Amino acid sequence: MAKKSDSPIYSKLSYENAYAIKKNMLQMQADILNIVKTIEEYKIIRKREFMLKVKLKSHFKETKTALNKLIKSVPQTEGLKEIKKENLKKHKEIEKTHHITIESQLMDIKQRLHELA
After folding, report:
1. Cα→Cα distances 30→22, 33, 37, 38, 107, Å
2. Of 2, 76, 105, 109, which one has the fewest beta carbons inside 10 Å?
3. Residues 13, 21: contact at Cβ < 8 Å?
4. 7-18: pLDDT as tens digits
5. Do 56 and 99 fall into the same domain?
């Protein structure tokens, strides 16, 4: 005599239930295949995007090199040198102001936190 654990267990399903289960299984398989297809398309698009980014980066380098050559070939005047110096000073001041603004905001937040505690 076979043990209960060794004997297979059968359950009776109605035709409608079996049909619905089979239909759901087929639908799930189709959904999984669609997901796999979408993932493959995504990989292709990402690869293309990466290639375009590399190409764009090389174009930027070429443009920068061409601009630097152009700037070096243009005669430098005293007025142009002064403008460059002024632009550098303004840029540094903007960076300092931005840094100070962030620092002041951080200090303000720390002060508020201290007041709440």
Report:
1. 12, 5, 10, 12, 57
2. 2
3. yes
4. 767 778 888 999
5. no
Tell me the pTM: 0.48
Distance CA 45, CA 37 (A): 12
21's CB contacts (< 8 A; 6+ apart) are: 13
Phi-psi region of 14 (alpha: psi -120 to 50; beta: other; left: phi over 0): beta
**Distances, alpha carbon 43 to alpha carbons 40, 46, 48, 51, 52, in Å:** 5, 5, 9, 12, 14
Look at residue 4 and tell me if it is in a domain. no
Domain that includes residue 26, residue range: 12-74
In a domain, 68, yes or no: yes
